Structure to design on (302 residues):
């Protein structure tokens, strides 16, 4: 009975070994590689076991639009044409990576003579892109005690950039209470959006500000911009308003006096302008052309 069991076990082991030999098996030394833009990167696809002498090897790029060939029929094609080569037996080497190469890639090997004739490996490639110079906006002058917002935007870097603000070449901390130099300041700093908001600026908040956009590939900075904080002259504003009110009152009084004295009258009496007197009973008034006065004639009613 024991001999029969041993023989059965040996048979199963030999069958397993036989099937393993007749199976194509792939492996990779890195399924999540990364590189910086314009550098080279290797997507390893190694054949661990195979018996077919001339297997079919294909590489596909997988995006939201679906898979597309980058290696087919022993030729590099698609996005990687003239920028990649195959290292025997199946490793894909990208010689000049660009940001558009960030995607998933699938290595497929078909071995017709093997019992398990197909295997594949998916590799997730990330091409890091250094940020460009960010666009910074800093108000030139802000009234004391008023709010102010500084903004910083950069959209080219990958992965997405994070932001730092600097005042007079010294980094602005996330929490002002952690630094003696910024302890009296009142602001909020958002490292993800790049906004620095002052709730109420103080004199010590004035200075030269610049922003840094950074990610794993590097960083870039905008040029420093000066922000000034000035006091509001309340007394001067009140005096100015009073002066304007007094001037308006003087103009109004002057116009009223002019109307009363008839300077704005629309009609003036002249030698040719007259008011026709009311007609009396039985008298008609006639003006002659030769005389500048009026004659009247009487008419009697019988």
């Amino acid at each position: 009975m024991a001999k029969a069991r041993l023989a059965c076990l040996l048979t199963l082991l030999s069958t397993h070994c036989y099937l393993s030999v007749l199976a194509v098996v792939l492996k990779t030394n890195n399924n999540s590689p990364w590189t910086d833009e314009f550098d080279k990167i290797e997507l390893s696809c190694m054949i661990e076991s195979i018996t077919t002498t001339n297997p079919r090897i294909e590489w596909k790029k997988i995006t939201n639009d679906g898979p597309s060939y980058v290696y087919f029929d022993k030729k590099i094609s698609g996005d990687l044409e003239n920028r990649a080569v195959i290292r025997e037996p199946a490793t894909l080497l990208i010689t000049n990576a660009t940001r558009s190469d960030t995607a998933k890639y699938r290595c497929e090997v078909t071995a017709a003579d093997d019992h398990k004739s197909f295997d594949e490996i998916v590799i997730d490639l990330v091409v890091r892109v250094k940020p460009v110079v960010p666009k910074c906006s800093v108000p030139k002058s802000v009234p004391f005690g008023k709010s102010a917002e500084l903004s910083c935007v950069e959209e080219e870097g990958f992965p997405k950039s994070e932001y730092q603000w600097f005042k007079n070449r010294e980094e602005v901390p996330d929490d002002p209470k952690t630094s003696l130099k910024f302890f009296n300041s009142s602001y909020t700093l958002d490292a993800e959006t790049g906004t620095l908001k002052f709730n109420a600026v103080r004199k010590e908040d004035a200075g030269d500000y610049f922003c840094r956009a950074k990610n794993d590939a590097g960083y870039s900075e905008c040029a420093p911009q000066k922000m000034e904080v000035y006091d509001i002259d309340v007394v001067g504003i009140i005096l100015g308003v009073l002066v304007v009110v007094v001037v308006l009152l003087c103009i109004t009084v002057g116009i009223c006096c002019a109307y009363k004295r008839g300077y704005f009258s629309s009609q003036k009496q002249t030698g040719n302008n007259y008011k026709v007197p009311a007609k009396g009973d039985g008298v008609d008034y006639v003006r002659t052309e030769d005389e500048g006065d009026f004659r009247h004639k009487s008419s009697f009613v019988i």
